[in-house]
User: Fold this.
Amino acid sequence: MLTGGAGYIGAHTAVELINQGFEPLLIDNFSKSDRTLLKGVETIVNRKIVFLEGDCRDAVFLNTLFSKNKFDSVIHFAAYKSVKESVIHPMKYYDNNLGSMITLLQAMQQHNINEFIFSSSCTVYGQPDHIPVDEQAPFKRAESPYGATKQMCERILEDAVAANQNLKAISLRYFNPVGAHPSALIGEMPTDVPDNLVPYVTQTAAGLRPKLTVFGSDYSTPDGSCLRDFIHVVDLAQAHVKALEKINGMPTRMEAFNLGTGEGVSVLQLVKKFIEVTGVKLNYEVGSRRPGDVEKTYANADKANNLLGWKTKLSLEDALTDAWRWQKTL
Ligand code: WQD
Assistant:
């Protein structure tokens, strides 16, 4: 069962799961999505997908679902993910992100569903002391309520695994997911003004935004802009399939994996790469720093490579080309 299956990462993961012969059932409450990506998934895989509208905080909905269907595993994507929105509405983030996690884990235990894959984030590390950052890095104090919910959800998961000998869990810490499926039938669909860099770039290139502002050029990085690890969403989706396939062969019942390319790319480098690969004029300027931004981070993804047999295959050029192709369909 995939929660948040109508969302950006969930939809791309559904495609990769079906391609590998899995039979996912998707749920979503459409709070941050609509049916567009579900239709795109069906076109890509050329078959109907099993979907139910519902909320992970609704114990009655989950228990009914788990009574009627035998699930082997749950991949939990459903969560709010805007750093900015979480600062303005922290209780909405704690209620949704923690409430969903707790209710879901309780329902899973009641129905003896014992494989859980969690959509986590590199934001749990805050500004790491050493980069590339590995999974042993300590959790610094989260810069936002969104980041705090990801840290708390990982702790909730750890305690659930410790208390239930049957439960196995993998936490996947995404760096910066970017791009879209090469078919341009699914991609990122921000419901309002995008916080994230790449959708803002493509919307500006498409003329939907007057200009892109690069938040800060006085960081201690080669070109002064922040450093990130931009990972193609299809590579990211395939990591979930690998996690599902390998969850029974992990060293312990709770493992975390960084999912990134292992390469740091600056915001300005990405902007220039976008212009180069698309040939599109992009109106951008350098402005002041965005509060709460981590200066530089990128992944040490060796653990995922060694234990999951996974590493990224697609490039930043692929991601930016795919993101632009998707934007032009909107
Ligand atoms: C990346 C860089 C901005 C927009 C967050 C979460 C992470 C994950 C991705 C959800 C930063 C700069 C951005 C713009 C800019 N969660 N930027 N102009 O903050 O690294 O990570 O989103 O998916 O868990 O923490 O991603 O894309 O917002 O920003 O200059 O218009 O791009 O300052 O340096 P971030 P982002």
